[in-house]
Amino acid sequence: MGLPKTSENGQVSMQGADSRTSIPRRIVGGLQQPLPPLAVPEQQPPKGARTVDPGGRRVVVRGRAGRRLYAIDGIRLAAALMVAVHHYAGTHRVDQPGNAIWGRPVSEIMPTVFRFASYGWIGVEIFFVISGFVICMSCWGRTPRQFFVSRVIRLYPAYWFAVLFTTGVLVAVPGVWERLRLREVLLNLTMLQSGSGVTNVDGVYWTLWSELRFYLLFLVVVATGLTYRKVVVFCCVWGAAAMLAPVSDFRLLELAANPEGAWYFIAGLALYLMHRFGQDLLLWGILAMAWLMGQLELGQRIDEVEHVSGWRGSVLIFTVFLLVMVAIALGAADRVQGKWLVTAGALTYPLYLTHYVAGTALINRLRDTMDARLLVAVVIAGFLVLSWGVHRLVERPVSGMLKRGLDTSFARLRNAGG
């Protein structure tokens, strides 16, 4: 983040690596925000912050705003492992007599594991909250072009591998999942198959459709230049649209507002604003609303999709997670570091994309060869190793090539426009 500068009319603004616009900044109740100037008492800056005093007005730049939060990398991997264990040993599908994966109810095979694994689906909601936080953090000060390029190179390389890998496994290990037609597999490579009514190669891809709609909406805010005020307004407007969409009988609004996932992303955005600017009552109010709407969605998902876990336990897990994220946002985990956490974060996306269909197909073939609990652990360990390979051998080189190609393409567009 750059240093504050004084404009010709005496306003204090922030300009630098994380800001493309000049925005008035003030400290109100410990909050750095782009609001009209207010008379405030002198305050001690937070530890690690930089303070300047042009024209007799103090501006505090939070020292934590641009730092990597290693704890979030660890939480992301934990959420992915929760989802994987749930898919292998905690879903309604695997607890049915004669199911294609285990052959008999998994609650009879490993009842204790099933009891805990039945709550693992909450890892998806955790992903959505973290996505809201991380996207807001990574987009601050970026242009729409940079935002677009960052999303493409982050999402597509591992996803392309996952589509081809999973299809290959289904060819090699038939009988558990139905294989899609070639034209449907090819359309899956776009990541836009849900918009065309085409089935996902792997059921876990449904979350990507939710993510893409979030990116499209947030791109509008990025294009105008991110500020505290604009992100707050975005949270409120999107939240209102998400509440109105289900009763509006307007399909386009429901599709754009994404009522099933909106409030989780909004929670992540509010948490990042707490991290960057400090807490205030408005942000707590947005977070509280996100919790209230989230607990309702959790109950609906249990009733309509999961059928294996309880509402109270699900809400408890989600509440504890939000409180942990609040602690991280406010600096409680600033000293948590470690290269292994960076690696953990890098494994998360490939693990999530590849584990479900391919993993359950393998369990079907190996279920009589060893103890069921050991088999689940071995399969997860195998997919962790695969994920490391995907990160090193696919994501890194392909992302680099994509970035260079997209940068060149956008440079041509800019020059042609000139």
UniProtKB/TrEMBL annotation:
Q: Enumerate the transmembrane spans.
A: 116-137, 158-177, 204-224, 231-250, 256-274, 281-298, 310-333, 340-362, 374-394
Q: Where is the Acyltransferase domain?
A: 70-390
Q: Where do the record's region annotations for Disordered lie?
A: 1-56
Show the GO MF annotations: acyltransferase activity, transferring groups other than amino-acyl groups
Q: Biological process (GO) annotations?
A: lipopolysaccharide biosynthetic process
Q: Name one Pfam family in it.
A: Acyl_transf_3
Q: Name one GO cellular component term.
A: membrane
Question: Which keywords appear in this protein's UniProt record, sorted alphabetically?
Answer: Membrane, Transmembrane, Transmembrane helix
Q: Cite the record's Polar residues compositional bias ranges.
A: 1-22
Q: What is this protein's name?
A: Acyltransferase 3 domain-containing protein
Kindly list the organism's lineage: Bacteria, Bacillati, Actinomycetota, Actinomycetes, Kitasatosporales
